[in-house]
Fold:
Amino acid sequence: MPIIPDDKDWTWVLARPCPECGFEAASATPATVATAIPALLPRWQSALMGSAVEQRPNDATWSVLEYAAHVRDVCDVFEARLELMLTRENPTFANWDQDQAALEGNYAALDPEEVSRGLVQAGLDAASAFAAVSPEEWGRRGLRSNGAEFTVLTLSGYFLHEVIHHLHDINS
Structure:
């Protein structure tokens, strides 16, 4: 059974701690992302080595494999958005439908070892991109396709919340 698409606007995590995972996105900076993402990657690798990673716990929840593939792609999306913010004035990000990406990418049928390698590479690439951001660039802006405005600073917290929250989702 397909997952019901998540149509919630999660930008509220920029203003208050997430009651589910406890992360405070407002405390994150690009420097935080640069160190936190590499530190979190072994947890994802470990989760992908578990048994039955392709099995969904219920009809409404992605499997560990699907969450990991999503986070791999999240790393790529946020690295690209960061690049736009640093190279263009007030760019608008192309819409990214995570649920459509999961279907088109056939996340449920992917090889866990390949997803692990891809997630590690995408995570390290994103961490490196955030590490290269100078504090003078933290205020640069970008717009999501729905009009939500981000700065490099708030994008950092939003991105890091994604990675941490999905670790919470898979209990790792």
Q: What stands out?
A: The first helix runs from residue 30 to 48. Helices lie at 30-48, 64-87, 98-104, 112-131, 152-169.
